[in-house]
Automatic annotation (TrEMBL):
It comes from Aeromicrobium senzhongii. The chain crosses the membrane at residues 21-38, 44-68, 98-124, 144-165, 172-196, 216-236. Gene3D superfamilies: Glycerol uptake facilitator protein. It is found in: Membrane. GO terms for cellular component: membrane. It holds the Pfam family MIP. This is Aquaporin Z. It is a multi-pass membrane protein. Keywords: Membrane, Transmembrane, Transmembrane helix, Transport. Belongs to the MIP/aquaporin (TC 1.A.8) family.
Amino acid sequence: MSQAPEYTMSQRLGAEALGTFWLVFGGCGTAIFAATAIPADAQMAVGVGWLGVAFAFGLTVLTGAYAFGPVSGGHFNPAVTVGLAMAKRFSWRDLPGYVVAQVVGATVAGAVLLVIAEGIAGGFDPVESGFASNGYGDRSPMGYNLGSVIVAEVVLTAVFLFVILGATAKRAAVGFAGLSIGMALTLIHLISIPISNTSVNPARSLGVAWFAGSDALLQVWVFILAPIVGAAIAGFSHDYLLGPDNDPEPVEPPAAPS
């Protein structure tokens, strides 16, 4: 039987950066370019809308999990890394490197998206467009206030971590983790795009906020803190609520009657 390969830390960090790049490029790119696209020779939008953006984020995680997950574990999200560490499924020692790699991957994706967007006829203003950034109040797609956004981001990130911890447990069906996690992220976006433009991922939020103006940067703290709090709650409470992810103890056969 061949032994599973052992990857170096640089390979793992590279996989995390690539996976996070793909998540931001695919998900935010769909929001920027395709959500309300208007062809030059048409009078009405023919974009994919919020439904399409939700599926884009889910598909990036699904495909990224199978492409890069075998190398790094496929976190692509600082909140996921924190939640897994809280659940004792990941080493705290490796957490800073993962977070840096994720933020770098997201930021490079945001920069590439801006370069592409600026090529449109008539120019492109990332501040005016919002550039797929997250927000509350007048920066929320439907005007939801700070309290609503915090509750949504904490609760949805916690649920996302419960799905990840359950789908990747030893007791879970083998080979389906990427599918269930990707579909969970799709559902999360279907719920919360109108509320906050959906973060549940500090790297995703930072990756585009750098380019979306001062208002986006002033609000981005919410989308760093709330997802981490939600993930930490789920990571800490998962074993208490659903049981530890341990192999069952062997059952001794009953003694033969004497």
